[in-house]
Each structure stands twice: as C-alpha cells, then as structure tokens.
Specification:
about 675 residues; mainly alpha; two-stranded antiparallel ribbon; two-stranded antiparallel sheet; Phage_tape_meas; viral release from host cell
C-alpha cells in the first residue's frame, strides 16, 4: 500500500464535503430569505385584509351590475352581427338603446331585442334608430313584447313596400286599428301576413287593409281566417271567372279602368254594396258566392253589412291620424305600474353604466382563466397527463377500496361482538352455545381418545337397537289391540300362538341385521360433518382477513418482497454496489496522479515555509536511500525541526502491509526511525 492512496481518499472526502457545506450554507441563506419573505407577506396580507374585505364586499354588491352589463353587451353583439354595423355604428346603436331604456318603460335589453328584429328586416343603422321610438310606442299601446312588436311592424312595412321612415305611419295605423276594433296587434299581424302582399299589388293601402281587417274582427273573423278571406276576395276581383264577370256586368259593376288596370278594390266593393242593396238575402248570397267563392263569401257579406257603400273608406280615413301610437302609449303607462317599469328601466341603465367599467378587467380575467383551462386540458391529454391522471385514479380507487375494506372489517368485528353479546344475554343463545361446545368437545374426544371412540361407537349401536325394539314393540301393541277389537280374546290367542314363532324369528333376523351395519362409522361421519360446518362458519372471516394481510405482506420489503416491484431488492442493491466499485476502479489511475501531484505540492510548500531547503543531490549521485526498514523511491530529503518532520515529494513503500492497522503501525515505525522520537523497533510514546 502506498501513502498517496490514503491521502487521495482524504482529498476525495474534502472535495465532496466542501461543496456540500457550501450548498448547506446557501440553503440556510435561502431559508432565511424565504422566512423573511413569508413574514413580510404575512404582514402585508394582514395590513391589506380590511381593504380586501371591503373590495370583496364591493365586488359582491356590484356583481348584478356586471352581470347586467355583460348581458347588454351580448345583446348588442347580436344586433351588430345581424346589421353588420361598424364600431362607430355600434356605438350609435348602443347609445340609442341606452337612452330609450333610461327614458321609457322599456329596458335597454328589450330595446336591443327590437333593434335586432329591425336589423333582420333590412333596416340600416340610421333607419333602425329612427324607427325605434314608434315601435316602442306601438308595443306599449298594444301591451306586446317589444321584440314581437318590432317583428310585426317590420314585416308589414316590407309587405306594403314602404320606406323605413314610414314606420311611425305603420305604428299609428295599427294602433288605431286594434284600439277601435275587436282585434289586437298580434291578430292584425297574423291577418296582414296573408293579405298584405296581395293588397299591395291590388292597390289597397295600408290603412284600407287595416280597416277591412278591423271590420272583420268585429264579427269574429280574425287572424289568419280574416287574412285568408281577404286574399281570396282580392284574387276574385283581380281575375274573375266568366260567370262572375257576367254577374258583375249585369249589375253594372266595373272592375277595370279604361287602360285595363284593376280599380281600387275598396271602390269596387262599394259599388257592389250599392248594387245589391235591393236584393234579397238569397240573391245577394248567390251573387257573392258566384263572384268571390265560398271561402271569401262570409267576409264580403260582413263588409257589406258593416260598411255599406262607403263604410270601408270612412273607417280607413280614421286610421290615418298621426301620433296615435304615442298618445295611446302615454295613456297606457300613466299609472303606478308604468312608473315602476320606468324606474326599473332607469335602474338597469345605471347598472349597465357601472358594470361596463368592470367589463374589460372581467374579460381579461375570463380569457386568462380560459387559457389556463385549455393548458390544463392539453396537459391532461398528453401522455404525462394521462399517466398522472391514471395514477391518481388508481391511487384514489386503492384508497377507497382500503377504506371500504377497513370499514367492512370493522363492521364485521362489531357485528360479531354484538352477536356475542346477544348470544350471551339470551338463555336460548346460552343453550345453543352449550350444545355447540358439547358437540365440539365430543368431536375432539372422539378424534383424540381411542377408548372414548370405542364407547361412543357402542353407544350408537345400542341406541339404534333400542330404537328398533321400541318401534317393534309399538307395532306389536298396535296389532294386539287391533285383533282384540275385531276377534276378541280367543282371536288374540289364536293369532299370537300361531305366529309367535315367526314373529320371534323375524325379530331375531332384524336384530342380526342391525349388527351387520357399521353404525360407528356413520355416527363418526355425522359428528365430523357437523363439526366441519361449524368450523367453516367460525373461521371464514378470519381466513378472509388473513388472506388480505398476506397479500399486503407479500408486497412489503421486510427482506425481498415475495412479489411486486420490491421482490428483487437485494439483487438491485448488489448491482448498485458492483457498479459503484467499477466506477472507483476506473477512476483510480486519475486519482493516483492527482494525489501524487497534490502531495508533492504540499511537501514543497511546507519545506519552504518551515525549514530551509536542503541542497538537492546532483543527478549523478542518484537517489539517497532511506533506512529504517523501508525502501525509498525517488529523491526525498528529510529534515527535523522540533517535533515536526518535513517531507519533500516523498513516496514510501511499506512492504508486508495487509490492512489499515498494519499500515498505521509501519508508518509509525518509519517516522520514529527518521525522527528519533522512538527506538529502532518503531512506535510512538
């Protein structure tokens, strides 16, 4: 063994210890910094706690405002999507909705719904904004939802090919019609759906069509029925059959002008009403059916009866009054309910104003949360995420299963303890336990003691024989009384005297047959079977728990586990140590060189610092041998200064050293010989 080997080992320890100490120091510094940061954060959180609570209360109070503003923003986004409005136009629509919502009985959300229907009807942004007040008035007058009112009015406007600027006219006409006749805005809208396109082509105005619909409503012809009848009437006037044309010509009714265009249908109806005034009811009905057909006949007769020659025109003139919708709406809302609606609309406008301030921050928060959730989704969909989720699922199921098993074991133990208490507390239970104990004792005695087994076998045989004798005696007694009741005393003597020999022989044969049966074996099997049944019932819970614990034991590394990932623990440890040893052997040459250089440097430095350098021998002299039972390699001057020894680049071989104790003893001897502190035999005092 060479001395540099020991010094190299010491150097290796120093190379590991120093970095570890540095790391430990840095960790202590980090811990202190973390503790300082934690205490600072705690102090900051305590100081900000009142502010945070106040902010939480404020946000909770403003939550309805934020929700209302978000809903209004969503509604306006729907309007913008339908109208293809630019950002500037969207601001105009939003401002109009907010203003109407704050100043009328309709909320901004409802106004936005109306704007959407108008945009769907092809209204531009400017037309939409201009038409909204009239639509709101008509909806208030008709007590109809704003969206439905906008839908009806826009459909009628388009059917009569009117400009968007004519929306106030539509609102006033419809309002005047349903407020002066037995109909409603909904029913008028249903009637117009069928008749308006045909009326516009036939030259009937909006007011004239609304007048006819209102007059028909007074007699119960409403909605789609009125629309279908009016459409059939106009078709009959525009293209009459030959028979209808002859009937109208006979009465002097002309349907076309000089250039062949259809005259105003209302004027034609007036001429017909005047021409048929003197007709009887049957003739008038026949004429009407011939001209208009069965479908429209009832509607035409109703118009004749209500309006006469100029009644439709007069009623249509009443529907042209401007401002009708606004006037009716004002009257409709001039009450407490209307005031409450106005208050609700104003409050909603306030909520939108306040909530809109928080919408950008809330949108940013929602988008950030969406990004995080999508990231989690990507992680969960990745192989690593699937593995972690699967492991978590397996762990959860395992924990649940162990919990359930523990609960089941506990419940079983508790139930068994309760069963024991009940059994011990009940006299019948005590008797059952006594019987079970007696049977178990007899079984144990039968299995362990030959003498007891022999006695039990004889007992079984004797019991069977006695039972058979009792059965035979009972049969004989029954026969005796049967014969006695039938044949009397003499018959009994005759019966038994003649058959006594046969009966005795039969009895003897039966007794002999009993001894031919191995009753002892049957009794033994009976008792053994009973004992096995009781044992299986009593030990089943124990076996179940034991099997589960054995399974867990097989997985635990008390030495090598019997199964599972720890079953090759010893082999793994052996392989680790073999690998570590191979690495050390592979690094030994480099370690040797490093240690040699380090020792040389230490020796030179020590010689220069403590004692003068001895003159080195010339190369011709060769290495100076060192005595004291050690052979020296190379050149190593040795000087003594007090009790210290200075070695310069000394490499010493100690022959005969086998272990660490031998190395220490040989090294002490060598130092003592050169130092003079010991005798020639070596050793330190």
């Amino acid at each position: 063994m060479e001395i540099f080997s020991v010094m190299a080992s010491m150097s290796l320890v120093d190379m590991i210890t120093a970095p570890l100490r540095k790391i430990a120091g840095q960790m202590n510094v980090t811990d202190k910094a973390a503790a300082s940061l934690s205490s600072g954060a705690l102090a900051l959180s305590k100081s900000l706690l009142p502010i945070a609570l106040a902010a939480g209360v404020l946000l909770a109070a403003l939550a309805p405002c934020i929700s209302t503003a978000a809903e209004f923003e969503s509604a306006m986004a729907g309007v913008g999507a339908v109208s293809r409005a630019t950002p500037a136009e969207m601001r105009e629509l939003s401002d109009a909705a907010r203003e109407l919502g704050a100043t009328t009985a309709w909320s901004a959300m409802q106004v936005a719904e109306g704007q959407k229907y108008l945009a769907m009807a092809g209204f531009s942004v400017q037309e939409n904004v201009a038409a909204l007040p009239a639509v709101l008035n008509m909806a208030s007058a008709g007590a109809t939802e704003l969206g439905r009112a906008a839908d009806i009015s826009s459909d009628i406007l388009s059917a009569f090919n009117l400009e968007a600027a004519q929306m106030p006219r539509v609102a006033d006409t419809l309002t005047a019609a349903f407020t002066t006749s037995n109909t409603s805005l909904e029913l008028l809208g249903e009637t117009m759906k069928y008749v308006a396109p045909v009326a516009e082509k036939a030259g009937v105005s909006l007011e004239g069509t609304a007048a006819m619909a209102g007059l028909l409503g007074n007699v119960g012809i409403k909605g789609s029925q009125a629309g279908t009848a009016l459409r059939a009437m106009l078709n009959g006037l525009a293209a009459p059959s030959s028979e209808a044309a002859k009937s109208m010509a006979a009465l002097g009714v002309v349907t076309t002008d000089a250039v062949g265009n259809l005259r105003n249908p209302i004027a034609i109806l007036g001429d017909m009403a005047k021409a048929t005034e003197s007709m009887g009811s049957a003739q008038k009905m026949a004429f009407t059916k011939t001209v208009f057909g069965t479908e429209a006949m009832s509607a035409v007769l109703a118009l004749f009866d209500q309006a006469g020659a100029g009644g439709i025109t007069e009623y249509a003139a009443q529907l042209t009054a401007a401002g009708t919708a606004a006037e009716v709406a004002a009257r409709q809302n001039d009450n407490l309910v209307g005031d409450q609606k106005a208050l609700g609309s104003a409050f909603e406008s306030l909520q939108i104003t306040i909530g809109s301030l928080f919408l950008p921050a809330m949108r940013g928060l929602a988008q950030a949360a969406t990004w995080v959730v999508r990231g989690l989704d990507m992680i969960a969909a990745s192989p690593v995420g699937k593995f972690l989720l699967g492991a978590a699922a397996v762990l959860s199921v395992t924990v649940i299963a162990i919990t359930l098993l523990s609960g089941a074991v506990w419940a079983g133990t508790a139930a068994w303890a309760a069963f024991n208490v009940v059994i011990l507390a009940n006299p019948i239970g005590l008797i059952i336990l006594a019987v079970v104990g007696l049977v178990a004792g007899l079984i144990a005695l039968y299995n362990k003691c030959d003498k007891a087994r022999e006695i039990m076998d004889y007992f079984v045989v004797g019991a069977v024989a006695v039972w058979e004798w009792i059965k035979a005696a009972a049969s004989a007694v029954g026969d005796f009384f049967s014969i006695l009741s039938g044949a009397g005393i003499m018959g009994v003597f005759a019966y038994y005297f003649t058959d006594i020999y046969n009966a005795a022989g039969a009895l003897w044969d039966r007794l002999k047959s009993l001894f031919d049966i191995d009753l002892s074996e049957s009794g033994r099997k009976l008792i053994t079977t009973l004992a096995d049944g009781i044992k299986s019932v009593l030990t089943a819970p124990y076996d179940l728990v034991k099997a589960g614990l054995d399974k867990v034991r097989n997985l635990l590394p008390f030495s090598d586990a019997k199964e599972g990932p720890l079953s090759s623990l010893t082999l793994s440890g052996t392989k680790i140590m073999d690998t570590l040893g191979s690495g050390i052997r592979a690094a030994a040459p480099n370690l040797h060189a490093t240690a040699t250089g380090a020792l040389a440097g230490v020796a030179v430095a020590a010689n220069l610092a403590v004692a003068p350098v001895a003159p080195a021998p010339s190369p011709l002299e060769g290495p100076a041998p060192i005595q004291a039972n050690a052979s020296a390699k190379g050149q190593a001057p040795v000087q003594r200064s007090g009790k210290s020894v200075i070695i310069q680049n000394l490499t010493v071989t100690l022959p005969g050293v086998q272990d660490a104790d031998g190395f220490v003893a040989a090294l002490q001897t060598l130092i003592a010989q050169h130092d003079g502190s010991g005798d020639e035999s070596g050793g330190w005092d």
